[in-house]
Amino acid sequence: MCLCFITIEGSQEYQDLSSALVHIRDIISAVDMTVNKYEKSQELQEVLNRLENKSIAKLKNGKVFSKQDLCSKHRVLQHKGLVYWKTATGRLKDTLALLLTDVLVFLQEKDQRFTFAAVDQKPPVIPLQKLIVREVANEERGMFLISASSVGPEMYEVHTISREERNAWMRQIRQAVESCPEEEEEEERSNESEETKRATEARIQKITQFQETLLAQDQMICNTLEEKLELYAELTELSLGSPEPIPHRHLLVQVDSDAPRLASTLLTAALKEGKKTHWIKKTFIHIFKSATVSLQDSSCEIQKLLLQEGELAPLRALPSLQNTKKEADEVQKLHLKLKQEQQRWDKECLAREKQQSDQENELRQREQQCLLEAERLRCEREEFEIQLLEYQQNMDRLKEGQRSVEREKEKIEAQQRLLQSWRHNRQSSLPITIPPQHYQVRQLVRRGCNPSRGRQSLESWGSEVTSDGLFEEDYSSSPSLTPLLPPQAYLSLDGTNGDEGGEENIVYL
């Protein structure tokens, strides 16, 4: 910066220094951002390490949010802090808020472990799409979080320690809402992750099946080799005629050996076995050659003796000649037996090789069948998914039809109630007819008749009115709970001129 002040403005050096200064600032800001991201990722990892594996949260759309969803690569921690979630009863519950790329998560601590917060049966995970942040009136440390999602709106009241921290939270949440991806992108990303997960599971299952098949084949080969080894050991004991048993009658490598031997030990044992086999072979050849040479020498000696001793020599050499023939016969029998054993072993080896080739062909056929079956299952799964989607769409249309039917039913019920109230008001306002002959009572009173007589007339009028269908309870109260006038009061409703008219007076209740 100081170099720019002492450099001539507009020169090439000034431009180079300005460009270098801009690049240095960009590098510093990039380093700061990288360090900040690393610190945020470490903080999120610490929280995830303390989060219970079995803890889940159910969202409004019916999906389940778990610990694995927080570990997603596209979710980065933006802000973290302790806030207070206000319940319906007015209590403030301590929660740890995590502001991620597309969601806001509330966690609660219990026994040094974190779980998803459960307050008033509201989901502790709030999508940032269509999230509105408002201040609480007359409350410096409170704010409202209003989720205007299409699945179902929800409102949360959250408090902080101070007003500055509340403003910082509101600023961070608004910035995260502005930079949050759309719902369609989020759904595509979740679908891609689910498809990748299903493909990985299918691949792991297929590899496991192949491993089990190979393990079974290895076990069969191992058993065959062990039987072959036993036969070779018995053959060696018969050939050598030693009373000591063969020390190694088992395979050097087992199928399910947890701790295999070292390579040097295996190679040393294999070399020893090879040397021993070679020595046995050389011993057989040497014995056969020795027997042949001794037989030839014996024949030559016999011929010499016969020539020298004449006729008496064959008689003395007869026992030795018979012994020599017996030895030759035994050697010949042993050679034939060895040849037969070798032929039998060759036949068994050919049979084993043929069986192994058949098993390999069968394994290839099974592998092709498995591939065809997997393709068929994939096609069926796609068809089932299409049917499930159509079923869900039909269910949505059915629910919409049910809601419209319920709205029509509510309208009809409201109209019925309105009609009943109208009928009730109409019945309560029906007129009452008073015959004109009953006005004689008023005329008797005006003419100065006896009061007792007038009272008797009034009582007779009341009885007549009662006989017409009007009861005393009808005068006490009306259907609209308005007190009615007694029959004496209706008599004064006539005109003051005292004329007896021929028409009826109508009084409305």
TrEMBL record:
Segments forming a coiled coil: 374-425
Region: Disordered, residue numbers: 177-200, 472-504
Listed InterPro entries: ARHGEF28_PH (IPR037819), PH-like_dom_sf (IPR011993), PH_16 (IPR041020), PH_domain (IPR001849), Rho_GEF (IPR051632)
SMART domains: PH
Residue ranges constituting the PH domain according to the UniProt record: 76-178
MF GO annotations: guanyl-nucleotide exchange factor activity
Positions with biased composition (Basic and acidic residues): 190-200
Biological process per Gene Ontology, one example term: regulation of Rho protein signal transduction
Keywords associated with the record: Coiled coil, Guanine-nucleotide releasing factor
Skewed-composition ranges (Acidic residues): 180-189
Gene3D superfamilies with a match to the protein in the record: 1.10.287.2510, Pleckstrin-homology domain (PH domain)/Phosphotyrosine-binding domain (PTB)
The keyword Plastid appears for this protein: no
Name used for this protein in its record: PH domain-containing protein
Pfam families: PH_16
